[in-house]
Amino acid sequence: MSAPVHHPHVVAPFDENVSFDELPDAPPSQAYRPTLTGWIGIIITCFWLFIAVFGSFLAPYGENALPFPDDYAEFQSPKEGASLGTDVEDRDVLSRVMYGAGRTIGISFAATLLAYFVGVVLGIGAAVSGPRVDMVMSRINDAFLSLPTIMLGLVVVAAVGSSIPVLILTAGMIYASVVFRLSRAIGMEIMVMDYVEAAKVRGEGRWWIITREIWPNARMPLITDFGLRLIYVILFISSLSFLGLGVQPPQADWGSMVRENLGALQYGESQLAVIAPAVAIATLTVSINLIVDDVSAHGGGKLSKRM
Amino acid sequence: MDAQTPRETPDVIFETKDLVISAVRENEPDLPIVKGVSFQVHKGEVVALIGESGSGKTTISLSALGYCKPGLEFSSGEANLLGRNIAGLSTDELRPSRGINVAYLAQSAAATFNPSIRINEQVTEAPVLHGTKSQDEANAKALELYGALDLPDPDTIGERYPHQVSGGQLQRLMAAMALCGDPDLLVLDEPTTALDVTTQIEVLKAFKKVIKDEGAAAIYVTHDLAVVAQIADYIVVLYSGEVKEAGPTDVIINNPKHPYTKRLMAAIKPLPEPGLGEATAADTGETPTLEVRNADAGYGQRADGQPIVKVLKDINVRVEHGKTVGVIGESGSGKSTLARVMAGLLPASTGEVFMNGELLPADLTKRTKDQLRKIQFVYQMADTALNPRQRIKDILGRPLSFYFGMSGSKRRSRVLELLDMVELPSQFADRYPHELSGGQKQRVNLARALAAEPEVVLCDEVTSALDTIVGANVIDLLTRLQKDTGVAYVFISHDLSTVASFADEIVVLYQGEIVEQGPTDMVLSPPHQPYTDLLISSVPETRIGWLEEAIAARHERNLRSADN
Amino acid sequence: MLSLIIRRLGIGIISVLAVSVIIFVGTMILPGDAEQIRLCQEATEANIAAMRERLGLDKSIVEQYLIWLGNFVRGDLGVSLASDAPIIELIADRYHNTVYVAVLTALIGVPISLALGILAAMFPGSLYDRILTFVSVSLVAAPEFFTATLLVLLFVFALGIGNAVVVGSTEGKDIFGLIAHFALPIATLSFVIASQLIRMSRAAVLNVMSSPYIEMAILKGVPRRRIIMRHALLNAIGPIVNVVALNLAYLVTGVIVVEVYFGYPGLATLIVQAVQTRDFILIQGLGMIFCMTYVVLMLIADVAALMSNPRLRHPK
Question: How do the domains of chain A map onto residue ranges?
Fold first, then answer.
C-alpha cells in the first residue's frame, strides 16, 4: 500500500468581518395550493352546495308535481319540459334531483356536525382526563365501533321508525364514535408535547390547556378529516334511504330515488331516473374525496423512486 | 485480503470535482445545497467532513454512493469513485458498486437494521447478492469481524434479531455489515453521535481498528472535532455547502486559518483542569433555594405506594442561591427524572423537596402559583417546547399575565425587554416559532422561563440539540443572565465538558443513584469514584493521539482493579 | 404475545356480548309490541296475553335477555313473527346466496386488488400508479349502487351481456357457474373493496418503503425485486392482513345494498324485510349473525396488526 499522497492545505478566501450565523432551519412547508384534481373537486362540490341551498327555488317543477298531467307514463325519455325525463310516478327527475340535493346534503351535513361536536368534546375530554376516565370512555367506544354501522342504523330504524331527526341523530351518534377515536388520538399526541407540559408546570388550568394549547393544534387535522367523515355519512344516509329505511317517500332524496326507480333498469324507456341520482351522489362524494386527497397528498417523501 | 484475487485499486479512491447538488422545487429554480465542492480520498486514508447542520456534509458523503436523498439531485460537477464518475448514474448502473466498492454506515443502527430479518443475513447480504462471496465465505468473514469488533458471543450474535442486542452493539454490527463486502471505501455518517460517551470510546476504537486492518479508505462525517482528531488523516471543513478549509488533521486542529474553523475550535469547551476551575465555597450554611432530601421516584405504582420501576434512589441535592448545579449522567441515569421531581411533574414516592427551607408539595397541582413561579423549566427540544400556533409575544406574554397580571403596553414592553435580554431583535415578537432557527427558539424558551422571574431554572439538556457554536453561545448567555438576575440553575446534561465549564457544583448520577457530588473542582480532581473516572476519561479531547492514551489508561485501570 | 392475543379474544367476546345487549334492547323498545301488528285488529285480549306468554314477554327484561342468549348459543333463534316459520329455516333457505357472493368476492377481488396495490407502490408516481390512484380515489367514495348502476349500464345495455337482476336458481352449479350467475354483484363488491384495498395496501407498502432500513438496502446495492419481496413485504404483511380483514368485514355491510339492488334473496334482503315488518325476533337473530361475523373479522385484523410487530414475534 502506498503512503497517502500529501494533500494540500486549502483555505477558502474570507473576510474577517463576516460572522458565521447559524444556518436557518429548513424552510416551512409551502401553503396548500390545489392541483388540477383538487380544483375539479372544489368546483363540483361548490356546484352541489349551491344546488343544495337554492335547488328548491330553481327547480322547474315542485317536488311531487307532474310535468305532463295529461300524458301519464313512467320513465319517460328526456324531452321538452323534462330534460332528464320522468320517474316511476311520472314526476320530473331534474326537479327531484334538485330538491333531493338539499335533503341529502343537509341531513348529512347536520349529522356530521353533530358527530363532530359530540366526538371532539368527548375525545379531547378523554385525552386531557386521567388514564382511568380515558380507559372507561375508550372501552365503551370500542364496543360501539366494533359494530357494522349499517346494522346499528337498521336496529335504530326498526326500533323508532324513520324520520329526518332520527336519521340525523342516528348517523351523528354512530359517526361520533369514529370522531371520538380520532380526536382522542390527536389530543393524546399533543398532550405529550413539551409545550403542554410547560403550561402545566406554569400552573395553567385544564380549560386554558384545552382551548389555548390543544385546540389550535388539533384544529387543522380535524378539519381535514371532516371532509372524509362527511363522505361516509352521505354514503350511510343514502344507503339507508336506498334500502327504504331512510328518507321516506314522497320526499325526494338521492338514495331513495335510486331505489324507487330501480325498475327503470329493466323495463324503462329511459334509465335516467336511476342514473341521475346515482351520478349526483357519486359526483358529490368523489369530488369531496378529491379535495381531501389533494390536501393530504400535499407533502411527503418519495424514497422508493431511488430504489 | 484472503483467498480473493486482490483488486487493482487506483490510489485515488474517491474524489469530487466542483460537485453541485440541489434541492428540486416546484415552480421555483433549484436550490443548491452543495455548491461546488472538491476533495479527494486516497487509499487507506480517513477523510473527515466536518460541519454543522445545513453544511451539506451528509449530502456530500452520500454522493460517494451515487445517492441523493429524496428531493435532491446532482446538478453539475463530478463524483469519481475508482475513476468512474457516478454522479447522476441510474440505480441499475450503481448497484454493482454499492456494498462492494463503497459501503455506508448510518447514524442510527436501530433504524437501519430491518427489524424482521436476522442480523447475520443482513450483514452478509451485500457480498452474497453481488456474488463476490459464497454464503459460507461471507459467514466466515462476518464471524471474523464480530470478533474484531469486540462483540459478545460472536458465534451466535448473528442469529439474533436487531431488537435483541444493545444500541452500542448494533452500531458495531452495522460496521460489520459495511465491511463484510471488503469495500474500498467506507462512508460513516455520524456513527457515534447517538451513543453515550463511555460507549462511544469503545465503538470508536473498534472502528479505527477495523478500518486500519481492512485497509479501506473512509469518509467520516461528523460535527464533533474531538472525534475527528482521533480518527481522521485529513479534514474538510464545510459551511453552507462550501469548503471553508481543508488540510491534514494536525494542521486543522493545531493551526486553523479560516475564521470559521477558528470559531468551531473556540466553541469547544475543554474539560477544565482540576485546580484551575472557579473556586467554590462548599457549604455556606445558608438555606438553599431548592433542596431535595432523600428522594426516591419512579414510574407505575405498587400497592404499598412505591413505584414499580424505581428510577431515582435516595437523592440529596442542594441548590444555593445564584449558583449552578450540574447534573451529569448517561441515558437511563435518571437525570431528567430528577428535574421532573423538582418541578413536581413526577411526585417523589418518598423524600421531600424544599424551597427556601419551606416544604413544597410533591405534586405540582398542589403547589401555589408563587411556588410554581419560582421554579421554571427549560426543555431540550425547543421545537416541541414552543406551541407552534402561538406568536412569540404570546408565548412570552402568558407568564407575565399569569403570574403578574400584566396586560396592554406594560406587558408588551416587558416582552421586548425579555427578547433583548436573550439577544433577540424586537421584531421577533410577532413571529411564530417555525420562523426561527434552533438556537433562536432555545433563546425564546429561556426567555419564557425568565419572564416568571424565577429563583431556579431547570435546564434539561438545553444545548444537546444545538450545533456546537450555537450551544456555546447559549451557555455564554446563561452565564451572563445569572450574573444579571441572580437566578440559580440546575443544568442537566450528558456532556461533562459543558457542565464542568460553568457549573459551581456537580452531581454525578449513575443508574438512579448519586455516585459523587461536590464542588466542580473537587469532582474533577482525583481521586475519583470509579464511574466518575470512567466518565472523565471518556470525554474526547480535541488532541491527536488522545484515543490511544485513553484506551491504554482504561486498560491499565482494568488491570489494576482486577489485581485489587 | 400469546397473552396479548388472548386479551384481544377476551375483548372480542365482550364486544359480542355488548352487541347482543344493544340488539336485544334496541329491538325490545319497538313501539307497540310487534305481535299486535301481526294479530291485527282482530286480536282479543286473551289472544294477546297468550301470545305474550309464548314469547316470554311477561318475564323481566333481564330474564328475557338471558333466555334469548341461551337459546341463541344453542342455535335456537326463535320463530319469525311475520311468517311463523322457525328463523333457522328462513336462514337455511337463503344463506347460500349471501355466502357465495361474499366468498367469491373475497377469492377474486382480494388477490387482484393486493397485486394492483403493491405494484402501484413499487412504481410510485408512474402513469400506472397515477391512473390507479385516481380511479380508486373516485371509486372509494362512490356508493355501491352507483358502481352497480355503472356496471349494469356497461354490461347489460352497452354490451348486451347478463341481466340487470339476478334470477334463477344456483342449484347444481359449479364454481364457474356460480361466478357467472352472480357476475354483477361480485363485480360490484369487488370494485368497492378493490378501491379500499388498493389504496391501503399501496400506503402500507409505501410506508415501509420510506423507512431507513430500505434506504440502507438500496445503499447496499440490493436489487429492487429483493427489496420489495424480502425487506419490504415482510414488514408490510401485518398491515396488509389488517387491511384485508377490515375489508372483508365491510363486505358484511356492502352485501346488503347489493342484494337489494340486484333483487336476489339472501340474508341481507331478509333483514331489510324484517325491519320493514318489524319482525324483531328475526332482526335479533340476523343482527347477531352479521355482527358476530363482523366482530370476528375485526378481531383477525387486530391480531394481524399485533403479529406484524417483530418485537412481539421474536421476544428477547
Answer: 36-52+86-306
From the list B295, B326, B343, the residue with the least C-alpha distance to B517 is B326
Instruction: Answer yes or no: is pLDDT of B335 > 80.
Output: yes
The verdict on C224 touching B (C-beta cutoff 8 Å) is yes
Amino acid at A69: P
C313: closest CA of chain A, how far (Å): 25
Please indicate whether, in this complex, the C-beta atoms of B247 and A16 are within 8 angstroms of each other: no
pLDDT at A4: 45
- C223 reaches B (C-beta below 8 A): yes
Among candidate residues C293, C295, C23, C12, the one with its CA nearest the CA of residue A152: C23
Say how many domains are in chain B. Answer: 1
Query: pLDDT (tens digit, 9 = 90+) per residue, B244-288?
Result: 999 999 899 888 999 999 888 888 877 776 654 444 445 566 788
The verdict on a CB contact (< 8 Å) between C212 and B106 is yes
Considering only CB atoms, which chain A residues are within 8 Å of B30?
none
Count of B-C CB contacts under 8 Å: 74
For residue A231, give the chain C residue with the closest CA.
C141
Nearest to B234 among A7, A22, A306 (CB): A7
pLDDT of residue B527: 77
How confident is the prediction for chain B on average, in pLDDT? 87
For chain C, residues classed under CATH 1.10.3720.10 are 95-265
Which of these CATH numbers, 3.30.465.10, 3.40.630.30, 3.40.50.150, 1.10.3720.10, describes C95-265? 1.10.3720.10
Output the CA torsion sign for B411, B412, B415, B417: negative
Q: What are the distances in angstroms from CA A260 to CA A265, A274, B275, C9? A: 11, 8, 95, 43
CATH topology of domain A36-52+86-306: MetI-like fold (1.10.3720)
Residue A88: the pLDDT is 83
Query: What residue of A is the nearest CA neighbor of B215?
Result: A1
Cβ within 8 Å, pair A302-B70: yes
CB contact under 8 A, B389 and A216: yes
Q: How far apart are CA B529 and CA B532, in angstroms?
A: 5
Whether pLDDT at C50 is above 80: no
Give residue B334's domain range: 290-524
- What is the per-residue pLDDT across C230-281, written as a single tens digit (0 to 9) for each? 888 888 888 888 888 888 877 877 788 898 888 888 888 888 888 888 787 8
The CATH code of the domain that includes B307 is 3.40.50.300
